[in-house]
Amino acid sequence: MKHKVLIVSNDNLVTGLAKSTLQQEGFEVLGIEDDKVIETIVDFKPAVLIIDHTSNQDGGILCRKIKQSDDNDKVPVLLMSPMRELAQAFDQFLADEFIYRPYIMRSLIDKVNKLVTPAEKLPSEN
């Protein structure tokens, strides 16, 4: 079974690059804009959620909203941003991991794999 990754970004280039990279590693990937993210999490059931945080899109607030919801708080979130200052403060948004972009493809793959492993264990803990 392929692990599902949901990418939330308003930048098609960012989504396309991450999607292509992760699909080559065997992930099932869906890219969306942030207006329907809660419904998509429920329907798609991702193992990992990647949220792009830019000056135009406040992924940090979206991340916090998701992590504070009772239904989606267990979904691991990788916050991605071109803003270096977030590397020191990503945990304030309750994100599980952070990656600065532009990024090295292997770094993205490694971070997603790191987040997938705990997600695999969730059903057996219930």
Automatic annotation (TrEMBL):
**PANTHER family, from UniProt?**
RESPONSE REGULATORY DOMAIN-CONTAINING PROTEIN (PTHR44591:SF3), STRESS RESPONSE REGULATOR PROTEIN 1 (PTHR44591)
Q: Which organism is it from?
A: Mucilaginibacter straminoryzae
* Domain Response regulatory, residue spans: 4-116
UniProt keywords, alphabetically: Phosphoprotein
Keyword Metal-binding part of the UniProt annotation:
no
Q: Output this protein's name.
A: Response regulatory domain-containing protein
Q: Which residues does the record list as 4-aspartylphosphate (modified residue)? A: 52
Say yes or no: keyword Phosphoprotein present. yes
Q: Which Gene Ontology biological process is one annotated for this entry?
A: phosphorelay signal transduction system
Q: Which Gene3D superfamilies did the record assign? A: 3.40.50.2300
Highest taxon above the source species: Bacteria
